[in-house]
Design a protein that fits this description.
Layout: E1 2-3, E2 13-24, E3 34-45, E4 49-53, H1 60-67, E5 75-80, E6 91-94, H2 108-120, H3 124-137, H4 142-145, H5 154-167, E7 172-176, H6 184-200, E8 204-208, H7 212-218, E9 221-226, E10 229-235, H8 236-241, H9 246-253
Parallel strand pairs: 1-5, 4-8, 4-9, 6-7, 7-8
Antiparallel strand pairs: 2-3, 2-5, 9-10
Helix pairs in contact: 2-3, 2-5, 3-5
Bound molecules: adenosine-5'-diphosphate and magnesium ion (MG).
């Protein structure tokens, strides 16, 4: 499903998704297959950032999982074009819950060093040096390196998950609701970190989120999904400021704007 391709003149896509469809088999005998992703096409530029937004169940995660190679498409193609630098895994994914991807008994630093040795083939000295570099890149230090996952805060654990993803030098980092479980202030710090990583490297972001305020902060382009289909796509500012599709407007109306105050409900 993931093929190599020659980039077209003028632009430099790192990812081209063409007419992607994903059906899941019927849950019960005689039931019909469910279509999670239906005829989805989009392009992500090298070093670019594309948000995939939509309400729960709209097919965002399934699209991301197919792009990451974790799920097989029913039809359509996913094409990742390498930029010519050494890549261990071209697509890496960071999930909402970093616990799931961390060994609870392994200290953060040694887990990262092991990943670099086993997956990237680095020798011990090089792996240790790169471990320190990656931790620094995500705003952590030796003090965090010696801890177990449960001894870190949620924001720190998500930084570790980002460091582990970057260790494999991906072309594309998929973040699936990666800041959704963090409090607003920690969320802002992790979003700043992601902005910095994008500025310093050529990694492209596929940023899956139901949160339009977050999407506005970190992405240049945006794709709106509903019932597995793309209803609108364009520059994030254009889509969010001048939505063309009534569904996008509905999503925007559901977001509390500036000046919004929680109203006390009478019971
Ligand atoms: N492994 C699966 N088996 C069956 N149905 C699934 C599976 N994964 C997702 N779905 C269905 O596909 C649709 C899209 O889900 P998902 O991609 O998780 O949406 P989102 O991330 O936008 O919330 C939903 O109806 C969901 O129930
Ligand atoms: Mg999801």
């Amino acid at each position: 499903m993931i093929r190599a391709a020659v980039p077209a003149d003028g632009d430099d896509p790192v990812l081209v998704v063409d007419r992607l469809r994903k059906e899941f088999p019927a849950q019960s005998r005689g039931g019909s297959a469910s279509v999670a992703v239906d005829d989805v096409s989009f392009t992500l530029e090298r070093g670019g950032s594309l948000a995939v937004v939509g309400e729960s169940g709209s097919g965002k995660t399934t699209t991301a999982r197919v792009v990451a190679g974790l799920e097989r498409a029913t039809s359509g193609t996913v094409t990742v074009t390498s930029g010519g630098r050494p890549v261990v895994r071209p697509v890496q994914m960071v999930f909402q819950d970093p616990f799931a991807s961390l060994d609870p008994r392994q200290r953060i630093g040694s887990g990262l060093t092991e990943l670099l040795r086993v997956r990237c083939g680095l020798g011990r000295a090089a792996a240790l040096e790169r471990t320190a570099g990656l931790l620094a890149e995500v705003g952590l230090d030796e003090q965090h390196a010696s801890r177990l996952p449960r001894e870190l805060s949620g924001g720190q654990r998500q930084r570790v998950a980002i460091a582990r993803a970057l260790a494999l030098r991906p072309e594309i980092l998929i973040l699936d609701e990666a800041v959704a479980a963090l409090d607003v202030s920690v969320q802002a710090q992790v979003l700043n970190l992601l902005r910095g990583i994008r500025e310093r490297s050529s990694v492209a972001f596929l940023f899956v989120s139901h949160d339009l305020a977050v999407v506005r902060q970190v992405t240049d382009h945006c794709l709106v999904m509903r019932h597995g289909r793309v209803v609108e796509q364009g520059r994030t500012a254009d889509v969010l400021d001048h939505p063309q599709n009534p569904y996008t407007q509905e999503l925007l109306d559901a977001v509390p704007g500036p000046g919004w105050k929680p109203r006390r409900r009478s019971v």
